[in-house]
Every structure is written in C-alpha cells, then in structure tokens.
Predict the 3D structure of the following.
Amino acid sequence: MKRTGIIIVLFLMCNSASAQLFTKERIKNQENFDKQTWTWGYFLGFNSYDFKFEYEPTIEEDILVDTSIGFNVGLIGDLRINDYFNLRFEPGLYISKRNLHYDEGYFDNYSRPFSPSFTLREVNSTYVHFPLLLKVSTKRLNNFKPFIVGGFSTALNLSSNQDGEDNHSAEFRTKKGMFFYELGFGIDFYLEWFKFTPSIRGVFALNDELVRDKTENGPSPWTDNISSMKTRGVFVNFTFQ
C-alpha cells in the first residue's frame, strides 16, 4: 500500500509536468514569485519511517519492522540565493508508529518464562523536525520548475522515554535527540493564486537511536544483540506558498 501510494504520486507529478513541457508557451502565473528574497508557506503530507539495524555477530534472525503511514505538518521559510539556488528552513511535526517483531529464538536463554508479548514492541514517535536544506532548481518551464533538495536536520522526539523503565517492564526506549541527512526532489507548479509543490524526500539518521536496557535488570534479549538502530524514512509533502 505504501509503495503503491508513492508510485501514484510520482506518476501524477510526471504526468502534469510532461503535459506542460510538450505544449506551446503559456501565460506565466506568479511570474515574479521567484524574484522575492524571502517567501513563506506551509506543508502537509505523510511519512513512512523504518529502522536500519546492525547486529552483533551471534544474531541469525533479523528484527522485523512493521511500518505504518504517519502525518506531517509544518512551515516553510525560503531564502533566494539566485535563480537556481534557495536555502530553506522547514520546521514541522512528524507523527509515526513502528512495530518491532522479534523471533522467539532471541529468548532461548532468557531466565524468565517466555511470553508471546515479549516478541512485540511498539515504537511511537512524535518528531519536531528542523531541516536546513539547499534547493537546486532548473530553469522555469512554462508554469512548472523541477528541483532537487538536500541537507541536514535535527529532530526532538517528544514520545521518547529514554529516562523511563526498560524492556523488562515492556517499555522499548529511544533517544530524544536525532540527526539526519536528507535527499529528495519535487516540482514547483505556479498556479494562478499560489505556488503548489509536491515533493518526495528520503531521511537517514546519522546517530544510533536505541537506548539499551538497564544492566541492573540483567541480560536483555531486546537490546543486547543490537549494535546500532538508525531511523530512515520517506516523506511525501505538499507545499503551499
């Protein structure tokens, strides 16, 4: 379902762009929009977050991550550098949920009696996301302009419980602060009254997000076998300026 939705968005973006590209010159909407030094806007969209795990050598079964579609909303500040480069700040709120499924073999040497609830951990995340991005655009073609975008970001996870209980009390812990790099592309469409921009962006964590279980509670089958756990995800945003 997630991949189908992304494919549909890509198809609509390419179809709209080609429809304008291969037609005669049109009257330009918002002709002076890109001449402004500062522009402002907001975005709505959805996300799909995943985890990339690296394991200790003894692990034979991977942890399976069940992802879901989350929601994005935020603001945009855009600084024009020249006709082809813009610096963008896009603070936003990103809400997501991931379920981790452990193989029963993780608990073969666990001292407590096995329970089916041990194999599932829910990871709810509410990120306040602060990306600083460089937008590189082509020359405007009729009423649209393709671009690529990349940069770095930091995020504060409001759902983090890094100082709480651990998996021995059924709480999977993640860190509050995260750092990412981001890459993506999109198309600016110049409509009569505003500029509309669909875009797709990949985000990749630079730091380990996992908080290990407390050593005083004994060995942990949930975290002892993980050497790193890094967030990665896809954003699909719809921007209005």
Remarks:
- The longest strand covers residues 38-55.
- Residues 19-23 have pLDDT under 50 and may be disordered.
